[in-house]
């Protein structure tokens, strides 16, 4: 391959991937024919999942390498167009493919923070980092920190930051893999996580960045086709218009808005039905609150509540005329499910009190920052908090985008600085195709739910409801709260991670489309997980082991260490994922805050401020990352601390505190210590100014 010119190499790539795209379309058509011939859906699901994983494995096997430059940076031969496609796949993780449209479905306008933050972040990548890091020309982000600031301490902090933010991010991807695997193979979620892990490892393990790059190009083609077909189909089905954005905003959204007004108007039949459910939720929340207060008296309050449930059951059984069987059944269940001790009672009743949130009116999809509360003052305060978090999240996502190691590493793989700049453009274009469609998908699915699920009979629920409820009750659950046999919106629980994967079933599309979407979601999760695991393993093997522990290690040992670490990190990540530490979108957002706090100040000031030095980088990275991690730990419910929020900022946007701390740390630390030596300042000049196209030759 090394003897092939770059021009011929580019031409070959176009030919190979044209054949690949045609072959994939033919494969989808064949599976559609099998469905029409009566092949069971489960078998079709297996075919889609395992055929695509085998395809990625084949690319990984053909790309196996023992060359350091090939393993770490794909030989620096990836053209801008294909690197843009690979970056798009690396970027569009399970959060983008699975979680984003679901968040837009649930949050409406407020969910646009993700689209705006992630898209805007690529402008920062192009302006501040990608071309400069490519000109530096080494292998990893800690590499740059070590060379720019001198010594192993900045490099080590960079390794820690890369591992922390990448590990948080990769958990979300493995969660997506487990979700898809368990739904379409019937495996239990925890097992599905480890089965999916094999698909993640097979590419990065064999050929490092070279294998991951060419696999990610293939994965992008699958994920964008899988994303676009269902939403276009849904658009045509509901509006007759094949362009989802036009259909969603001109036809579906006005209808959704009109129905939401009906849901909130008690004078309409739909509004009255919804209010009957909300009243029950309010009563349950009030009852839970009273129970919690009874626990303040100690064990006596707990026993009194237990006796109250037993007396209620006895009263119903002794009633004349006889009580309705469904009320007796509910009372028997309440006695059976009563908590075993006061501690469990407190946990359960606290959760029940939270159900009061479901009693709130339906928030208008297109209205920004809808406040909740009983008085105008409470509603205004709630709206202000939402606005504050919206802006904070956009900032954290933008800055985090420009600091994520697995994304910045992609620009090390292009042949030149010029190609790196072009690559950012193509990355943004390929990402735009999905991001421009996600808001429309959220609206179209909401239209489908409002029109076809709400108001239907519990006796005739569609099959997709039970299918997804079997995977995870938090993703899909419908309960007849008011016992009228009709589905109300307030009785439906749809997890944001379900919306995209279930779209074909919700819309009644052929099962082949469900399999296609599952393959697309798997491609999105696998592509990002590959890049993240490789980032972690490379940081540990190249920067920690080779640069700091054994600088004389031969190539074979370096790559063996990288592969061994890759396996260990992957297994640990899969185990943590099986504990379900959070939904996909939170985990991804947290990774962005961590990257923004730990990397962005030191990287950008390292490129644009010659005076930035070693002490500044150490203080800046430690303070930024430390404050961000502290705030998340103290406020995110998974850790159980439950400290009060600072200025009501959610833990996903912890970077709003870490970023300024990092910038101040770099500036103050640099000003109170000597300026860097001439060699370092020459490095800054080399990276900053386009007088040389050559890569920087590391002196370490």
Structure description:
It is built from 27 helices and 2 strands. The chain has 700 residues and is mainly α. The chain folds into 2 domains: 6-239 and 388-441 and 509-688, Up-down Bundle (Sodium/glucose cotransporter); 269-359, no CATH class. Strands 1-2 form a two-stranded antiparallel ribbon. Helix 1 packs across helix 9 and helix 1 runs antiparallel to helix 21 (511-549). It is globular.
Throw out a few tags for this protein:
single chain; 700 residues; mainly alpha; Sodium/glucose cotransporter; two-stranded antiparallel ribbon; 27 helices; 2 strands; disordered C terminus
Secondary structure layout plus pairing:
Elements: H1 6-36, H2 41-62, H3 68-73, H4 80-91, H5 94-107, H6 112-136, H7 141-149, H8 152-185, H9 189-239, H10 244-264, H11 269-294, H12 299-318, H13 325-336, H14 342-353, H15 376-401, H16 405-408, H17 417-435, H18 438-453, H19 463-471, E1 476-478, E2 492-494, H20 499-506, H21 511-549, H22 555-578, H23 584-598, H24 600-608, H25 614-635, H26 655-671, H27 678-688
Work out the helix count.
27
Distance between the termini: 30 Å
What is the helix content?
over 70%
What is the class of the largest domain in the CATH system? Mainly Alpha
> Spatial order of the strands in the main sheet?
1-2
| Total domain modules | 2
Mean pLDDT: 80
**Which class best fits the helix and strand makeup?**
mainly alpha
The succession of helices and strands, N to C, reads HHHHHHHHHHHHHHHHHHHEEHHHHHHHH
User: Low-confidence segments, ≥5 residues, pLDDT <50?
Assistant: 692-700
CATH H-level homologous superfamily name of the largest domain: Sodium/glucose cotransporter
β-sheet strand percentage: under 5%
Number of strands: 2
Q: What's the CATH architecture name of the largest domain? A: Up-down Bundle
What is the gyration radius calculated from CA atoms? 27 Å
């Amino acid at each position: 391959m090394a003897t092939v010119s770059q021009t011929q190499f580019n031409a070959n790539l176009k030919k190979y991937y044209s054949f690949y795209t045609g072959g994939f379309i033919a494969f989808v058509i064949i599976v559609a024919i099998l469905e029409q011939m009566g092949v069971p859906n489960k078998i079709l699901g297996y075919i889609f999942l395992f055929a695509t994983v085998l395809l990625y494995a084949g690319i990984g096997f053909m790309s196996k390498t023992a060359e350091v430059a090939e393993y770490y940076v794909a030989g620096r031969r990836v053209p801008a167009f294909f690197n843009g496609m690979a970056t798009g796949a690396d970027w569009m993780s399970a959060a983008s493919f699975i979680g984003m449209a679901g968040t837009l479905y649930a949050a409406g306008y407020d969910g646009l923070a993700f689209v705006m933050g992630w898209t805007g972040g690529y402008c920062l990548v192009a302006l501040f980092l990608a071309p400069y890091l490519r000109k530096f020309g080494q292998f990893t982000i800690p590499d740059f920190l070590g060379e720019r600031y001198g010594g192993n301490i900045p490099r080590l902090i960079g390794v820690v930051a890369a591992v922390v933010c990448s590990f948080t991010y990769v958990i979300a991807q493995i969660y997506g893999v487990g979700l898809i695997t368990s739904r379409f193979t019937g495996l239990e979620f925890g097992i599905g996580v480890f089965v999916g892990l094999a698909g993640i490892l097979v590419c990065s393990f064999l050929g490092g960045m070279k294998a991951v790059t060419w696999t990610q190009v293939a994965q992008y083609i699958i994920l964008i086709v899988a994303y676009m077909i269902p939403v276009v189909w849904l658009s045509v089905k509901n509006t007759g218009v094949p362009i989802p954005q036009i259909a969603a905003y001109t036809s579906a959204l006005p209808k959704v808005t009109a129905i939401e007004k009906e849901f909130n108007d008690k004078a309409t039949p739909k509004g009255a039905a919804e209010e009957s459910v909300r009243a029950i939720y309010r009563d349950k929340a009030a009852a839970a609150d009273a129970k919690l207060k009874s626990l303040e008296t100690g064990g006596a309050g707990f026993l009194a509540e237990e006796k109250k449930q037993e007396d209620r059951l006895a009263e119903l059984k002794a009633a004349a005329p006889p009580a309705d069987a469904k009320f007796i059944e509910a009372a028997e269940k309440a006695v059976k499910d009563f908590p075993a001790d006061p501690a469990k009672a407190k946990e359960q009743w606290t959760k029940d009190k939270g159900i009061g949130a479901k009693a709130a009116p339906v928030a208008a999809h297109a209205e920004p920052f809808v406040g909740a509360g009983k008085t105008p003052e409470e509603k205004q305060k709630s709206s202000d908090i939402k606005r504050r978090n919206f802006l904070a999240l956009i900032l954290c996502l933008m800055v985090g985008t420009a600091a994520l190691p697995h994304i910045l590493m992609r620009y090390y793989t292009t042949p030149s600085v010029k190609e790196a700049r072009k690559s950012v453009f193509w990355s943004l274009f390929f990402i735009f195709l999905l991001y421009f469609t996600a808001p429309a998908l959220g609206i179209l699915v909401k239209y489908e739910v409002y029109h076809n699920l709400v108001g239907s009979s519990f006796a005739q629920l569609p099959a997709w409801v039970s299918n997804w409820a079997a995977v995870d009750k938090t993703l899909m659950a419908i309960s007849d709260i008011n016992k009228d046999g009709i589905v109300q919106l307030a009785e439906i629980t749809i997890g944001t991670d379900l919306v995209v994967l279930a779209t074909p079933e919700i819309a009644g599309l052929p099962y082949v489309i469900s399999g296609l979407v599952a393959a697309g979601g798997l491609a999105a999760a696998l592509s990002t997980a590959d890049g993240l695991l490789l980032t972690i393993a490379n940081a540990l093997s190249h920067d920690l082991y080779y640069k700091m522990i054994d600088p004389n290690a031969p190539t074979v040992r370096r790559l063996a260490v990288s592969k061994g670490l890759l396996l260990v990190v992957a297994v640990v990540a899969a185990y943590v994922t099986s504990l379900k530490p959070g939904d996909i979108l939170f985990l991804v957002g947290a990774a962005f805050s961590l990257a923004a706090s730990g990397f962005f100040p030191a990287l950008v000031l390292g490129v644009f401020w010659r005076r930035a030095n070693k002490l500044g980088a150490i203080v800046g990275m430690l303070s930024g990352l430390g404050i961000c991690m502290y705030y998340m730990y103290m406020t995110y419910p998974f850790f159980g601390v439950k400290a009060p929020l600072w200025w009501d900022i959610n833990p996903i946007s912890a970077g709003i505190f870490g970023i300024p701390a990092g910038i101040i740390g770099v500036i103050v630390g640099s000003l109170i210590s000597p300026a860097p030596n001439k060699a370092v300042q020459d490095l800054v000049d080399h990276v900053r100014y386009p007088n040389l196209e050559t890569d920087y030759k590391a002196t370490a």
